[in-house]
Amino acid sequence: NMVMSFRVSDLQMLLGFVGRSKSGLKHELVTRALQLVQFDCSPEVFKKIKELYETRYAKKSSEPGQPQPQQHRSPDTLSIHSSYDRGSSVARTSISTTNIDYPALYGKYLNGLGRLPPKVVKPEVRLVKLPFYTTLDELLKPTELVPQNNEKLQESPCIFALTPRQVELIRNSRELQPGVKSVQVVLRICYTDTSSPQEDQYPPNIAVKVNHSYCSVPGYYPSNKPGVEPKRPCRPINLTHLMYLSAATNRITVTWGNYGKSYSVGLYLVRQMTSAELLQRLKTIGIKHPELCKALVKEKLRLDPDSEIATTGVRVSLICPLVKMRLSVPCRAETCAHLQCFDAVFYLQMNEKKPTWMCPVCDKPAPYDQLIIDGLLSKILTECEDADEIEYLVDGSWCPIRAEKERSCSPQCPILVLGSSDVNGLLPPPNSNGENGKATADVVDLTLDSSSSEEEEEEDEEEDDDDDGPQPKRRCSYEKGLVSAC
């Protein structure tokens, strides 16, 4: 009630005291102040609110020209809170003193005792960036869920209001599907850990109520292995369809299980992207020039004088390991050590449905911002339509690998060199290595792993295929039974 009665100057004073933004319209300031009361109402903050309230009404009750009672501090005196470390004895002393000689105090620090004590900046919880969500506004920065009692089931409320601009962004955004706007208000939850950006993580017994209705939360991925618990995909929870798209305040209540671990929640205005949009962005900014890719091939195949076995070439399949179809947009992570590519189209579609961002070739992280399109392999795909595999040679050139029957009819295996003046890039085979397919005799496939066949069998047993879309055979199957998130 005290906060609701504050004027703009009072609200700005309160928000400045805790280091929050003081800009915006009054209803935005009120929303921020209410969030402060709910999630961070320490004794100092409560004392500040009480001081502001008493100061305001003391001014109202006093007659013009009548001096203000000494116990009520002026706004200038109150602003000192944000300048000093509230934990230091000097700050406490100076704040409690009515008549402060600021120049003398400041000079004292400069002339003999060092600088003013720096304000302690508490590290904040950060959430990882999600490729399919572009953040437009932070409505509530990650705030810890604090238990109010010893009960296992806790409720944490949050009140906020949208600005007219935010409402218009939502209303004018396109629909991803009926009833689902691309611009959304989403709730994200993670562990309260400030050491690194956190992935979304739900607390036990989670339920989210928006105004008067409960919002559906993503369901569980069923597990086909006995004794293995089903996994829950922790994603942003879309609240938009249950909110008041007006100046009215919205109330969100998070119900959560208090079992020892600390969680933080944040509210964001986001634009949800599609796999097609991410593919287009990758095609615009993520293509690696063929010459750079060729230099990488030569580096991979550079002869090592200390090596007993000289690597003369490496085979690369033109078939996507995800869906066993010919590559259309050859892609891999910049951090991957292999030359083998997967298809960006299917990889993005797979992560849109079940985000894992793991390379299907080496099983190492392949996040979106590390993906590149291999310009050299893209060129090869257009020039080599009658083979499903090629071999890179030490000079950066390549040749197609065909079936043995087909190769026996064609004793010469031409080597295609990129950048040649010849239209087809055909050159006579070097020495005798190109005859009768001998060029491939000493090939070492650097992408093979001794355990890959066993892992593939385990993956096939573990996962089912989905009914829609391409039918991947490895690491891209989508489990049935997933409940959508709103």
Automatic annotation (TrEMBL):
UniProt keyword list? DNA-binding, Isopeptide bond, Ligase, Metal-binding, Nucleus, Transcription, Transcription regulation, Transferase, Ubl conjugation, Ubl conjugation pathway, Zinc, Zinc-finger
Q: Which organism is it from?
A: Crypturellus undulatus
Q: Where in the cell is it found?
A: Nucleus
Region Disordered: which residues? 58-85, 426-486
Enzyme group, top EC level? transferase
Q: Where is the composition biased (Acidic residues)?
A: 452-469
**SUPFAM superfamilies documented for this protein:** SAP domain
Q: Which intervals carry biased composition (Polar residues)?
A: 63-85
Q: Where in this chain does the record put each SAP domain? A: 3-37
GO biological process annotations for this chain's record?
A: protein sumoylation; regulation of transcription by RNA polymerase II
Q: Which GO terms describe its molecular function?
A: DNA binding; ligase activity; SUMO ligase activity; transcription coregulator activity; ubiquitin protein ligase activity; zinc ion binding
Q: List cellular component terms (GO).
A: chromatin; nucleus
The name this protein goes by in its record:
RING-type E3 ubiquitin transferase
Catalysis: reaction(s): S-ubiquitinyl-[E2 ubiquitin-conjugating enzyme]-L-cysteine + [acceptor protein]-L-lysine = [E2 ubiquitin-conjugating enzyme]-L-cysteine + N(6)-ubiquitinyl-[acceptor protein]-L-lysine
- SMART domains of this UniProt entry? SAP (SM00513)
Q: Which residues form the PINIT domain?
A: 113-273
Q: What is its EC number?
A: 2.3.2.27
The family note in this entry says: Belongs to the PIAS family.
Q: Where is the SP-RING-type domain?
A: 305-386
Q: What is its main location?
A: nucleus
> Which gene produces this protein?
Pias4
Annotated pathway: Protein modification; protein sumoylation
